[in-house]
Amino acid sequence: MKIQVLVPSSEFLSTAGARIRYHRIAPHLKKLGHSISLQVIDSFRPRPRPDCDAVLISKCYDARGLLVAAELRAQGILVGADFFDDYYSQATDSRFVHLRSWLHTISRHLGFALCSTPAMRENLARLAPSLPCHTMNDPYEAIDRDALADRVEAKLKRVQSSSVLELGWFGIGDNPHFPVGLNDLVAQAGCLAGFRWHGLSPRLSIITNRRALTTERLQLLARLPVPWRLEEWSEEAERRLIERSYACFIPVNGQPFSIAKSLNRAVTALTGGAQVLSAGYPLYDVFSDFLYRDAESLAADVRNAKPRLRRSTLPAFAEAMERHAGPAGEVASLAGFLENLPAPLVSDPLPTFAIIHGRNSTSHVQKYAQQFGHLSIAGSHSATKLNHDVQPVIDSVTGKAAVQLSARAAELLRKDFARAARPGKTASGRPCHVLPLPEGFPRPATTPPAPDSEAAALATYRSDIDDIRRLLDHLFGGIPVIISETTSPFGAEAGRSAVG
Amino acid sequence: MSGRHIVFLLNLLQDVNVIRPLAYLAAREFDGGIAYLVSAGFLKRDNLRLWQRELGQIAAETGGTIHIYSTPLDALAMLQDKHGVLVAASESTLSAHVETHDVFRLSPAGFLKVTLQHGYECVGFLQNREHVIAHGRNIRFGADVVCGWCEAPYLTSLAASERPKLYVSGPPMVLNRTPSTGGQQDVHGGLICENLHSVRLRATGNHGKSFMDNFERFCARLAGKGQRVNLRPHPSGQYVIRNNIALPPNVVLNSAPIYKVNLAAFDFGVSAPSTVVLDMVLASIPTAVWRDEQGIMDASNYEGLVPVSGLDSWLAFAEAVSQDREAILERQRAFLGRIAMPTDPADVYGRFARLLGGAASIGEVSIRAEKAPVPPRRIAFIANSIIPTLQISFLKPLQSLIDSGEIATDFITEVEAIERFPLKTRGKLDTSDARLDRVGGWIEKRLAAFAPDLVVACRYSAPGAGHVAAWARQANVPLVYHIDDDLLNIPREIGEKKFLAHNQPSRLAAVDTLLRGADLVYASTTKLKARLRQLSYRTPMVTGPIYCSGHILNRASFRPVRRVGYMGVQDHAHDLAMIVPQLVRYLRRNTEVIFELFGSIEKPKQLEEFGERVFVSGPVQNYNEFLTEFAKRNWDIGLCPLVKMPFNEVRANTKWVDYTCVGAAVLASRDLVYDGCCTEGCGLLLGEGEWLEALERLTDDPGLRFDMVSRAQTRVEQDYSVKRLKDQVLSVFAEASRLKRAAKSGQWFHHPHGPFETRAQPVTAEM
């Protein structure tokens, strides 16, 4: 089986997420005769039929993901999406309307869903109950027991001889929507001060992304109760941090977004030879025998030279790792799941989609859609100036309402309208076909009302989209529609199907 | 460089004026690093590059490093790993101060954050009505301590939440020395200061125009009399310069930094409400405060000073200055008394020194090793020869450890180097680099072969200093440089030959190299350490309470005075010469007394008349043998005259210890190095003309002499014991090792290539 993973950008290819979730399973898939490869969605061509058996859409949260899913499904290819961030279950949070809308739309085209944790799977089971779902834990990279034991012992010796306890915190320090990362660190760091009561001098190294380091967050860090130092995150910096830290501090907060997170930070720290001190939500409970929940126990184990992760506990540790993060097991289970899924039926002919650009769309979506023969439709609220295939306008000479159509759109018109279309030019001088706006459809506004007002746009958003949808139905007769929207609170669609 | 630092934050151009005196104070008073953290906005504002040059000079003279920061994160990258004091001249919740305020918000916990009042009327401290209109009343600070110029009741704008932070320091500008007029442009006439950019002149009307109108008319009237007028733009605003304001032809612009202007040289000063009014008042020149003719602008904080508005009042003031100058100055003194502002420089210096000194020790404990240090096992000593300093400072206190084999030693000396690599080849002096390299290479080989775990360069000033430092760095072995004289400023008084020898550029360079390259400089006295700090050496530096240890060789005995002596080398001839005339009179009067010179010092000609009553015993190189021989002299009185000069101020009190150990009472020069040890009757401290009387007193009263020696010997046993010096030396070694370890672990802990560090790299002092 050939699995193709589609990612949003080339930057994503070098993230910890891509490395942990996909690169780590590649060699194990190969052993089973399968393959996995990653490709940026913009460079992926859904037509002609790509040479793969399953496609996994990862973090492609715009209309390109929707379009690819619909296209591939129509060609009989199994399409899935990987869900590892919970942006969907907070049903009353207006910041995620466009993402909930995306899930709602794409789930119609998906043949399966992949989740990184059981918590995420439970969420998805509620949101898309009919979607076959599989949980693939983030796998560990490798465990060299002897090297691990040596490393742990060397670190223990160093702490015992110097009384200096090197601690590490690593990860993305921020999230655009939730207080996580460094906020969690600061919120839970009180427990680190406890080491001093036990004769240890804690020193904390923090490795994170530069974007997270706003003055406000740095001000929070300044109040940490232990000496600390910052370094910018990189794979190499993270490796060094774990290598030198006696323990990694991994606090987790209890919000839905955080409790659905994968185990990978604890797995990375433990398999790198660092003890783990976790605080807050017990996300890593499955490894409870090998991690600490308080400073006192960790300090006592330093004193007694019996850390939870040590030579004699390694067999049990390896077993637990295999059970919850073993790459071979995870891969076998994934392959079995995929092989048992039915292939979707092939549509013939392949459908052409109309992409309606909502309030905040992007030229990436427009170009991607047009290169495969789909239509780009101007929404009345679109804040981006794009060359659309269908654009309602007011004729500057006659003052009458009209629809400007590209050659591709004119080809697809219902026959009675095709005859009425006349050659014309767009405002920018491009040749087009012009059709009088059929009766019963509202005239387009010469200037959008209150263009900077989100509230005004939201008030008419649904009815405007409905009007365009009706117009498309009238002109093209049942063309399937995809709404392209990238920001909330637009794109809700008020519970109706986004694909007509 | 990690560890204890005083970091000065600079953002507005006028911050340099405020920071400057404290920077020099920090360099004189404190160990640890000095750094200047400069906002990118500062560089942008300084389009004339004047203040960058000033800052560059301050940094060079204080041994500080300059760092530029564009974002708060850049500043943090520089501050992390350090602790101490963070000082800002302009910091508050005002948007204009956001660059410094943000750094205070995120500064590491080991820093005490200090905001200085940067002007007499200053937002958050003492505001006028225009300040309130522009900025409101509730200005707060990110600082832990705010340094105010006046007592609390006079800082009427200090918000309630900030009052507990107040530390009344007085204005730092009084610490600036009055510059001489040398080099300054011709300064006769009055000085008019403009601050037209200021909110004071804008918030309640266009007062700037009114000021300039009066100024121009005033200039025209003075031009009629053939007089010039000096105009000083505000250092940051520089309104007349930036706006290319056409000035009358008899106007001379003065835009030098305020601390480079001799304000006292001007006949009088006029300014709208501004700190420069205080500068001029403190410089004791008649000063008038301008306000608009309608009286809208708030000048109430200057109540008591001479007010001027329209042209007539300007002219009347200029006239009053020539007629009744003293009355105006009296008015100004009364004003200063009323605002409760400390203005005595010594007082203000002490206030800042106490604040910064206390704060600079913050965080020290956390970086110290908790465990007892392991003493070094193998010590390589490097010295010009087996000099007395080496014996006094190390070999004597460590003798027991060396004898028991606990410490192995090796000695690498210039004398030995010269034996191997002669200075002259075929009768010619070999000053080639090749010889120096050979010497350096030989030293490195010796070090590598001995494999020490500590290197001590003792007063070393010979070839190979760079090799020693490089080897120690590369081999990761701590290097201690011990110094007991200001070897960089050896005066001619110690003798022409030695003066020339010590001041050879290569020797000075060697001392400089070791002062910079050692992990720790071990200075003999706190004054020497302070001197080295003044010379901009920022290397970690320690001194101990004692320099020379001693044990009693001859117990004090009650006996008549028969033997008086002076022990020393020829370097001290000028010191002895100071008291020789009095000595002659003493010896003439007391014919039973003999006078002995012990050491390489020659017998002064004036003493020839006493024949064999005055004699010289030659030097003994080995320190133990010297002590044995010295004790045999049985002196009753030992003399420690020192000429008052900078070189002698940093010497150690070795003679007092040696004299006391052999049972001699000590007569010593006052106000130099013996003041401490001679207190409580352990010696007599004398001015230049008091030696004869003191000698007579002790000779006449053997009981007084006996008591003095007894007390001094008790002090030696208590405070100057060999054991105490041994502990001191071992703690110096431990500190050097700790510093080496800290530097190493710092590199390990703090990855040197961390991308967060790239934007706040040090730049050279000359920006």
Overall SS class of chain A:
alpha/beta
Question: How far apart are the first and last residues' alpha carbons of chain A, in Å?
Answer: 32 Å
**Helix/strand class of chain B:** alpha/beta
Give the low-pLDDT segments of chain B: 362-373, 746-767
Query: Which percent range fits the helix content of chain A?
Result: 25-40%
Write down the Rg of chain B: 31 Å
* Morphology of chain B: globular
Number of helices, counting only DSSP H or I runs of 4 residues or more of chain A: 19
Number of DSSP-assigned strands of chain B: 28
Number of strands of chain A: 19
Q: How many DSSP H or I helices of chain B?
A: 25
Oligomeric form of this entry? heterodimer
Largest interface: A-B, 24 and 23 residues
Could you describe the 3D structure shown?
- The complex is a heterodimer of chains A (500) and B (767).
- Chain A has 500 residues and is an alpha/beta fold.
- Chain A has 19 helices and 19 strands.
- In chain A, strands 2-1-3-4-5-6 form a six-stranded parallel β-sheet, with helices on both faces.
- In chain A, helix 14 (314-325) packs parallel to helix 15 (327-339).
- The longest helix of chain A has 23 residues, at 454-476.
- The radius of gyration of chain A is 27 Å and the shape is elongated.
- In chain A, 44% of the residues are buried.
- The model of chain A is unreliable at 494-500 (pLDDT under 50).
- With 767 residues, chain B is of the alpha/beta class.
- Chain B is built from 25 helices and 28 strands.
- In chain B, the strands form five sheets. In chain B, strands 7-6-5-4-1-2-3-28 form an eight-stranded mixed β-sheet, sandwiched between helices.
- In chain B, helix 5 links the parallel strand 4 and strand 5 (111-116).
- Chain B is globular and about 90 Å long.
- Residues 362-373 and 746-767 of chain B have low confidence and may be disordered.
- The A-B interface holds A 163, 166, 201, 203, 205, 210, 213, 215, 218-219, 221-224, 227-232, 234, 237, 240, 244 and B 72-73, 76-77, 80-81, 102, 105-110, 366, 370-371, 748-751, 754-756.
